[in-house]
Specification:
Elements lengths: L18 H43 L5 H32 L4 E5 H15 L5 E5 L4 E5 H17 L7 E10 L2 E8 L31 H11 L3 E7 L3 E9 L6
Parallel strand pairs: 2-4
Antiparallel strand pairs: 1-3, 4-5, 5-7, 6-7
Helix pairs in contact: 1-2, 2-5, 3-4, 4-5
Catalytic activity: ATP + protein L-histidine = ADP + protein N-phospho-L-histidine
Organism: Luteimonas salinisoli
InterPro entries: BphY/WalK/GraS-like, HATPase_C_sf, HATPase_dom, His_kinase_dom, HisK_dim/P_dom, HisK_dim/P_sf, Sig_transdc_His_kin-like_C
């Protein structure tokens, strides 16, 4: 049974926590800030130097290399790009875990429509059937919930690449004081035997040839759901698509 929002102290409510728990939480947040700063500056600077000089070599001296040398240089550029993407994912996960919650009633239908419009704008020639149920709403941090929808809908779009037409549906229902959102796609799907670990960092259910990414996107979604005292789960059949469910607090005015 999901926790009762009225019985669970909000994550940002320091008065509801014992002093020692508040001190431990502040220390943890400080450590996360130090780690995020180190990742952002101390790792990114040398990585960008590697990528920059490799690209200069490709542009200015690539024609003078034999096929093997050019292949090695291309691999350096690809590895640097993957590392940059991984660092970006780690920073996103750190932000999702430590950002203060600014809660209000959030129009989830609008967030889904925005995210889907951005995906369609990026690939205007791709045929798509999109459906978003109107008047879906929850209580939470709009910035983080926007990120949640962006990640889930990006996955639904990406893993529908083998289809002639993208088909995505966003629907929801009220269950007591909770809002349950379901994102349905008809893409490649995944094997449910691996569902228990799919929300852990660095776990991939698809290989690089299918755009498997860095394995942090769903971990970010899981973190955001948990920050809202919610939960995330999925159902899928390989070759037939997936359904991702997110449970969030309903708007307080109508809970």
């Amino acid at each position: 049974m999901p926790p009762d929002p009225a019985a669970v102290p909000p994550p940002g409510d320091a008065d509801a926590r014992p002093p020692e728990a508040e001190r431990a939480l502040q220390m943890l947040r400080r450590q996360q800030e130090i780690l995020a700063h180190g990742i952002s500056h101390d790792l990114r600077a040398p990585l960008r130097a590697i990528a920059g000089y490799a690209q200069i070599l490709v542009a200015g001296h690539g024609e003078g290399l034999d096929p093997r040398g050019r292949d090695y240089l291309d691999r350096i550029c690809e590895a640097a790009a993957r590392m940059e993407e991984l660092i970006e994912g780690l920073l996103m996960l750190s932000h999702a875990a430590r950002a203060p919650l600014r809660e209000s009633e959030v129009d989830l239908s609008l967030l889904a429509e925005w995210s889907l419009a951005e995906l369609q704008d990026a690939e205007p020639g791709r045929a798509a059937e999109i459906g978003v149920q109107p008047q879906l709403a929850a209580w939470g941090d709009e910035r983080l919930l926007k990120q949640l929808f962006e990640r889930l809908l990006h996955n639904a779009w990406k893993f529908s690449a083998e289809r002639d037409r993208v088909r995505i549906e966003v629907r929801g229902e009220r269950r007591g004081g909770r809002t349950v959102i379901s994102i349905v796609d008809h893409g490649s799907g995944f094997d449910m035997r691996y569902a228990d670990r799919m929300f852990e960092p660095f776990q991939r259910l698809h290989g690089p040839e299918q755009g498997g990414g860095h394995g942090l996107g769903l971990a970010v979604v899981q973190c955001i759901a948990e920050r809202h005292e919610g939960r995330l789960w999925a159902e899928s059949t390989p070759g037939s698509g997936s359904v991702f469910h997110v449970e969030l607090p309903a708007p307080r005015s109508s809970a």
